[in-house]
Design goal:
By secondary structure, the chain is α+β, with helices and mostly antiparallel strands. 32% of the residues lie in helices and 28% in strands. The structure holds biotin. Its EC number is 6.3.4.15.
Length: 328
């Protein structure tokens, strides 16, 4: 069966990506995918139009110089193996106030589960507890996904942990560094925050209607002037890994990891996800202080409950189950 145009382009791109050290002849591409030489040249033009830099030399062939960096739907879909996340609309915006707010509007307009909003820059990026998420152009991955989970409202905090796991695993996929998950939503490398998520739940009567899960991952260093305002010292994947990180590949990894855990939760509930989150955190057993809406609780973390609450035992042996808060 003949492949669809975008499927052929994905294959051509994969082929060129495997052979960046040499030229691949138009004849080889045409034979491999059973298409004419003219069709090969057309597909290469489309790939170039998408932002891929492809060199063409007479009698030698094609060579991929650099993959596209813009997170447009076509580019993100190339090689994306998910079935739901990113397979509906991917709304790519060069600049937006907040991807979460944009995704919220789409969800209210019946956007299906798995709809993605991604931006190069956010002018009003939102963090937890009303904080700002600095989102300068090109410095990070700013992405939100629309979810319509069949869960009880008390399970909603677990979606924060799911997003936390997906972000941590995507970070590991791209950097080979195993990061640490900090309850409830931070991803740390050597104690520095590289990612956070803001998961917003919308109830419909007594049940969960839709959820917007937004993740921010620092890819390149933030401009100096923004850093002192931040609560936890931030750092970026490029600083930690010492190499260029493609935001397109990071987004693909995030959506793939997200889908894996989300579909598993649908089939098996939250238990496997919670065990995975516990593998990635070092919070259990730690003595710490947590601020919850102006009140502070100090003690030893004895567990994270099945509904995602941090269980802190104070010096009098009393256990406090904290739904949300900031570890100080
Ligand atoms: C935090 O650590 O406080 C959460 C940060 C969440 C930031 C992301 S960036 C994409 C999405 N859009 C927003 O406005 N916020 C989230």
């Amino acid at each position: 069966m003949a492949l669809r145009g975008d499927a052929v382009r994905t294959k051509i791109l994969e082929l060129l990506q495997k052979n960046t050290d040499r030229y691949t002849s138009g004849e080889d591409v045409s034979q491999l995918f059973s298409i004419s030489r003219a069709a090969v040249s057309k597909h290469v033009s489309v790939l170039r139009g998408q932002g891929h830099e492809i060199e063409a030399v007479t009698r030698k062939g094609y060579r991929l110089v650099r993959k596209a960096e813009k997170m447009t739907q076509d580019v993100v879909r190339q090689g994306l193996t998910t079935t739901v996340f990113g397979q509906h609309d991917i709304h790519y915006l060069p600049s937006v106030g907040s991807t979460n707010l944009e995704a919220m509007k789409l969800a209210l307009g019946d956007a299906p589960e798995g709809t993605v909003v991604v931006a190069d820059e956010q002018t009003g990026g939102r963090g937890r507890q009303g904080r700002t998420w600095h989102s300068p152009s090109g410095c990070g991955l700013y992405v939100s996904v629309v979810l319509r989970p069949d869960i009880a409202p008390n399970e909603a905090p677990l979606i924060t942990l799911l997003t936390n796991v997906a972000a941590a695993e995507a970070v590991q996929d791209l950097t080979d560094i195993i990061p640490v998950c900090k309850w409830p939503n931070d991803v740390l490398i050597d104690g520095c925050k590289v990612a956070g998520n803001l998961t917003e739940v919308f109830l419909s009567g007594d049940s969960v209607g839709h959820v917007i899960s937004g993740a921010g991952i620092n890819v390149a260093p933030l401009p100096e002037k923004l850093v002192p305002e931040l609560r936890t010292v931030p750092c970026s994947l490029e600083e930690a890994a010492g190499k260029h990180i493609s935001r397109v590949e990071l987004l693909q990894a995030f959506l793939t990891r997200y889908e894996h855990w989300y579909l598993l939760v649908t089939k098996q509930g939250f238990a496997p996800l919670l065990s995975r989150w516990k593998e990635l955190t070092d919070v259990v057993g730690k003595e710490l202080t947590v601020q919850v809406r102006g009140e502070t609780f100090s003690g030893t973390v004895v567990d994270v409950s099945t509904d995602g609450m941090l269980v802190l035992q104070d010096e009098n042996g009393i256990e406090h189950s904290l739904f949300s808060g900031d570890i100080l």
